[in-house]
Amino acid sequence: MYDLHHLKGNTYYIDGPTNIGLYKLNDTDVCLIDCGTHNEGPIIETVLRRNKLILKYIVLTHSHADHSGACDYLMKVTNCMVIASKIERAFMRDNKLDLGFLYGGYPLDEFDNRLMHIEDNDEIYSLEYLPKDLRSFKLPGHHYGMIGIRTSDGVYFVADTLGSKSLINSQHILLIYDVEGYLSSLDYLKTLNGNIIVPAHSEVTNDIIDLVDFNKNQIYEIMNIIIEYLNKEHTIEDVTAKIFEHYNLRMSYNKYMLITSTIRSYLAYLSNKKILKNYFKDNKLVFITMEAFNDKFWLFPKLGSFVGR
Ligand SMILES: [Zn+2]
């Protein structure tokens, strides 16, 4: 762990809980793609020093603390320039913004600030400042303004577009903000097959198809559990509890925040696709499948039932 691996040309990565990209701008100067958690700042600094590298830029794929947490430390010790997309810069300005966004209101004290905390940074530059050998591309789905980075060597850093099989087998449901965007980003990854692809939380590969399908199938499985459960009307919290029960997960404050937010996104996706119907009952927002809704409110027997369907 935390070794510098050569990928191709000037492109390298440092392996860790979050894989960190490294692009050599010349013999000594480098740009990092993400930088790990707050605690990993000194470790990354040591890796750079050991390899006689000077940190000039950090480009962040998104603002989550496991990608950006070390920024503040590395900025202070190296004076490097930090670059991120417009919305991700906004999330980094206020350490309560992401918590409030996920929870949907002022966050409880019980939410783990250490996990989500991002130090305030005064200077975070726009993507216009990206070194010329790097190109950004949008990866909607996981977070508002997440981007991927392609280096001039044709290596793609794809952040949290997907998870490894072991991550999915242990967590079962990964954080998603926009399900439609997430599925389109997964499809985009398939078009990159054959190139070197570096996911943040899975092995480097040039054959991503199988992992993309694994991730997609897990999303479809979750949708099917939701659809099956919603043959009767239920609230968002009911659906979240059902998913926890199905996968035998244990609720915690942080899981509640992350997964309830994700369930809301699944329910919005299925409602917007007209697979689910939503309405208010006893002043509660409830969801039910369109099919069950139509059956429920059918005043006369359906013709189909008379013709031996
Ligand atoms: Zn993330």
The overall pLDDT, averaged over residues, is 93
Total number of strands: 12
**How many H/I helices?**
12
CATH superfamily of the largest domain: Ribonuclease Z/Hydroxyacylglutathione hydrolase-like
Q: What small molecules does this complex bind?
A: zinc ion
What is the CATH third-level topology name of the largest domain?
Metallo-beta-lactamase, Chain A
Strand content: 15-25%
- Give the helices and strands as they follow along the chain: EEEEHEHHEHHHEEEHHEHHHEEH
What's the level 1 CATH class of the largest domain? Alpha Beta
Parts with pLDDT < 50 across at least 5 consecutive residues: none
Per the principal axes of the C-alpha atoms, what is the gross shape? elongated
Which percent range fits the helix content? 25-40%
Number of domains: 2
- What is the CATH architecture term of the largest domain? 4-Layer Sandwich
Gyration radius from CA atoms, angstroms: 22 Å
Account of the protein in words:
- This protein has 309 residues and is of the alpha/beta class.
- The protein has twelve helices and twelve strands.
- Strand 7 and strand 8 form a beta hairpin.
- Helix 8 packs antiparallel against helix 9.
- The protein is elongated, with a radius of gyration of 22 Å.
- The N and C termini lie far apart (60 Å).
- The model has no long low-confidence stretch (mean pLDDT 93).
- Bound molecules: zinc ion (ZN).
- The site of zinc ion (ZN) has 5 residues, from loops.
Keywords:
309 residues, alpha/beta, Metallo-beta-lactamase, Chain A, Arc Repressor Mutant, subunit A, 2 domains, six-stranded mixed beta sheet, four-stranded mixed beta sheet, 12 helices, 19% strand, elongated, binds zinc ion
